[in-house]
What does this fold into?
Amino acid sequence: DAMVIQNPRYQVTQFGKPVTLSCSQTLNHNVMYWYQQKSSQAPKLLFHYYDKDFNNEADTPDNFQSRRPNTSFCFLDIRSPGLGDAAMYLCATGQGQETQYFGPGTRLLVL
Amino acid sequence: GNSVTQMEGPVTLSEEAFLTINCTYTATGYPSLFWYVQYPGEGLQLLLKATKADDKGSNKGFEATYRKETTSFHLEKGSVQVSDSAVYFCALSDGQGGSEKLVFGKGTKLTVNP
It folds into this structure.
């Protein structure tokens, strides 16, 4: 009965090679969030979708993009991963201003 | 802007010891406050929350009270277990335009030894 699913759990990519991380939800929440969490740090919000409206954080690099083709799915695209982009990427969902529910995360390694 | 300051870790306790992890916040308005827990290699799980002053959130023996006068939301547990070993994040909501944006503290790593 998983509610927020992230695939894959571990992703290895090469420097500069585009990579896509996936998130899906069974909660039918209208908001989906992507966070980046580097080792021993707090999660940092990259952007979120409120329904189809995309909301980017001011300090999110252009290298990071997102797509939400429908309510259930949201993707994080990293166009040209650098070594500094190695991190845990967390997807979360919420309904308006209700509590956020997090997925298990995808750990990205850049070689 | 809004911010959360959390007690620096790591914290190491023996089983059945009393736990306090301090959390204070700075915010305009009246945010909701949260404690999330992250077990090794996993995502964040909501532990408890409080949405207004003097509310007490509780779950699995953990408690925290929303104190507006001291802008605090300290996490407590009377008797910790080895299975409580994890990283604990205090957070506040920064709701704008109908969505909830969370601002996290830096996290406190708790290790409980048998």
Notes: The interface with chain B takes residues 4, 6, 31, 40-43, 45, 48, 50, 55, 90, 92, 94, 96-105, 107 of chain A (CB under 8 Å).
